[in-house]
Amino acid sequence: MSQFFVTQLKMLMILVSLLLPLYAIADWSQLYGGAHSTNYVDISRDNIVLGWNYTVKEEYAIFYGAPAVSETGVVYLPYLEYPQYWLQLRAVRPNGSEMWMANWIGSDDSCSVVFLTNAVYSKEHNLVVLGWTCTTAGAYYQKHGQLMAYDATDGSEVWRSQMLYDANDMSSISISSDVVFASGGYDCGRDGATLYEMNRNPRLFTKSYLSSKRDLTDKNNISQIVAVDIKNGKLLHTLDIDHVGCYTQTKVFPTDSGAKLLLPANLPDSFDCEGSLLSLKCSSSGKCSKEWLKNIGLSWDAKFAYNRDGSIVFGSNGLKGNPDLIFGLKTDTGETLFSNKGYCNSDDDYPSGPAVDEDGNAYYSCGNLVFAVDSKGRSLWKSKTYGSKGYKSISLFKHSPAIDQSSGLLVFINTDSSKLIALKCSDGSVQGTYDIPKLQATDNGCTQPPIIAGSAVYLIKSHNLAKFYLFSISLHKVITDNK
């Protein structure tokens, strides 16, 4: 082999190594995928069997919490068996068959009502991680929960963290390298309702009543960021911060020295949860410190995502935040790059969370359309409209689009979950539509955003919010059937 050829080969390898990070988006380390929220896994097209649906034979089969997906197309479903409130984790192969089931996740006999977080998947450690929370104690009272890890291949339990007594109502959990991050506070759903009633009907809350509750209401701002070692579940660090509970999104971007975390904070200030965005800088050992805090009127369900190099975060304010408003910030300082309205068809429509492509453009759904913006918030295109109704403040679910980088396509679900629409990322032109099957008259629609896994689109749909189904649909069929 000539020296010239060796030199050229080395240069090619260096070039490939530089390009790889742009396409390294197949991890499922966070809620709805990775740091860029594309709901996307790039797997072998031959690894997927299409056209099936999976559920559990019991009358009530609740897929509770967002699933994780492996690089081979296995779906890991957090599962609540009702009315026993048994928590399980179920793994479903890419052909629709069940691979394993882990039972008795929330194993505290004193807790009769339990909730599950989202699941996350680590290819490096071959683990699926999720958390559970006891919620029976009621507002203002300390509750508890745990993080657990399971072998992704056989479902065997690998570790349980110690009981976490100050990370209640755990939000979405995320992985950065060897650290699992979670956050939580007190029962902010009921806390928020109480604060709302206090503001609306102050005469109902006498001085003696408020005095008796003062110590407790002071506590409803207490929250913790928890860092756990992914190898053994050992608690590494905790950080007390203002209220970040209510199952808010924790978004992590790995850095050379550790990770950057973004999450809503100061949420119970009003019933509409006009909260702030909190930035944390975390070391590789999981120790976090506050970097900046910016009040931008976030709701508990605000969603955001990073661009490829982590320098910009795109976001939306949530269903109790500001309608038809999206924002972009510099992640190092919190400086506002844009905060704009006018993208949806109506000024009382709410955009979903963003999905960000490798070029740094962000895509949002208004429920009845999708729009694209660049890093300065400038509109790139707006799709045609599907249905008259967009996402409103009363919308139960609002789903981000999913991007398939390999084909340059994105898919989204319309407001009433009747259609799956495929668009070109470059110009928003329609490539195909699919009529999503209606389960029964009490069909509640899709409860999770669409997931693109190789040649398949996975959808989770519910009947009466009690019987849930996981569907596999051919992305190719969505496109070719409409040509």
Textual characterization of the structure:
The chain is mainly beta. It contains four helices and 36 strands. It has helices at residues 3-23, 188-200, 207-219, 475-480, and strands at residues 40-41, 52-54, 62-63, 68-69, 75-81, 86-92, 98-102, 114-116, 120-122, 127-134, 145-151, 157-160, 174-176, 179-184, 223-229, 235-241, 251-255, 258-265, 275-283, 288-298, 303-306, 312-316, 325-330, 336-341, 355-356, 362-365, 370-373, 379-382, 402-404, 409-413, 419-424, 430-435, 443-446, 451-453, 456-463, 467-474. The strands form eight sheets. Strands 1, 2, 33, 34, 35 and 36 form a six-stranded mixed sheet that branches. Strands 3, 4, 5, 6 and 7 form a five-stranded antiparallel sheet that branches. Strands 8, 9, 10, 11 and 12 form a five-stranded antiparallel sheet that branches. Strand 23 and strand 24 form a beta hairpin. The chain is globular, with a radius of gyration of 22 Å. The N and C termini lie far apart (49 Å). 50% of the residues are buried. Mean pLDDT is 80; it is low at 1-25, 188-196 and 214-218.
Determine Rg (CA atoms, Å).
22 Å
Would you count the extended β strands for me? 36
How would the global form be characterised?
Answer: globular
Query: What is the mean predicted local confidence, pLDDT?
Result: 80
**Largest sheet, if any?**
6 strands, mixed
Q: Count the helices. How many?
A: 4
Provide the helix percentage: 10-25%
Tell me the strand percentage band.
Answer: 35-45%
Which blocks of ≥5 consecutive residues have pLDDT under 50?
A: 1-25, 188-196, 214-218
| Alpha-beta content class | mainly beta
Termini separation comes to: 49 Å
